[in-house]
Amino acid sequence: MSQRPTVAVIGAGFSGLLTALHLAADPDGPTVRLIERSGAFGRGAAYSTANPDHLLNVRVANMSAYPDDPEHFTKWLAGHEGWSSHGGFVTRGVYGDYLQDLLRQALETTSAGRLLLEQDEAVEVARAGEGWRVRLALGREIQASAVVLALGVLRPAPPVAAGPELLKSSRYIGDPWDPKAQLDDSVSDVLLIGAGLTMIDAAVSLWRPGRRFWAISRRGLTPRPHAPVSGPAPEMASAGSPRRLLAAVRAASEDGRWREAIDSLRPHVQSIWLGWTQAERAQFLRHLRPWWEVHRHRLAPSVARRIGLLMRGRELVVRAGEITSFAPGRDGIEVMWRPRGARTLRRLGVSAVVNCTGFLGDLDQAGDPLLRRLLAAGLIRPDPCRLGADVDAASRLIGTGGQPQAGLYAVGPLTRGAFWEITSVPDIRSQAAGAAQSILSSLRRARAA
Prior knowledge:
449 residues; alpha/beta; 6-stranded mixed β-sheet; 13 helices; 16 strands
């Protein structure tokens, strides 16, 4: 055991957990130290919720944790009680139970000392000879041959127009996934900044009788619903440039089957993204990204119906525009905003503000102390699109010198700039398996040298 190398996996949400499980599954593999600051191993922010209205955005048939065993999750569901399906969608809490069960099984079947859970925060990663040193918040240090950053979704950046007074106020929620993010029942009108999936979750979580939500985003686009039943995918022409991709989707959607057209691209999205030039990626992000997001990342039908009822009853009002200022006062917050395409500002009085802009991409704005130290040391750098950290095809992080860092990896949303679609289970599970195999191969080569 003492001769086994060590791999430190920082973050025990879906991406970190799956990477750790793949590493521990190899009988000749390393000792794996899974580090999680929250103590919720195997759930992460996405699957820690107990709200019955928080459903998965992907049908259960495509939620297996293992790409080579597509029925793994459905077989797990068949052997467990206490869950219900909403048109093929289950709650995120149930999926969190599934992930924790995978962890329990791994702890029971892996030889003693091979998979270790570290409830602490990694605050620094630095070179140590040919390996790495991970310093934890409580002062301990871990020597590792390889390190994997699996930090999940980064806390959203504060609104540009928000001043210190608002950000420090109890009337402002900067992270809607924070378990402490609650509003007093007396709060009436609430501004939700953003109109995507995070806004949907916040509206469902924070709704109370008599409370009204105002959602403002640049385009005012909201996620589309899944169809009640998934249909067969149409034949798609080769995508090519972003312009050709749009034309192909439109052509395949002429009979109204746009969902199937989008779904047919799913296995090819990463290769399409990798095949684009930097200029083509920028073109997609500038013009097509919002439309792709709302059509690709859809709502479970029951959630869509709930949101539809809120909108018809004007309990949720969605507007396209730009927020220009906040003026917190004793009785509430005065919000000035400009509707899209208009010149005149409008005033909106609310009792609270929730930042629903989604996960942070630009690392230069990241507040995470570990990322800030890695950036300062030149061990990582932002990707050219400012969607996360720059990595190579093997998920190795690239430093300021332009070369991959041997033994330093990232998995999950942090790598979106390299792979684009890397935020949902079907995408991350393949990356986690691939990164683990890359690490195992590297360790074997080092052992043989």
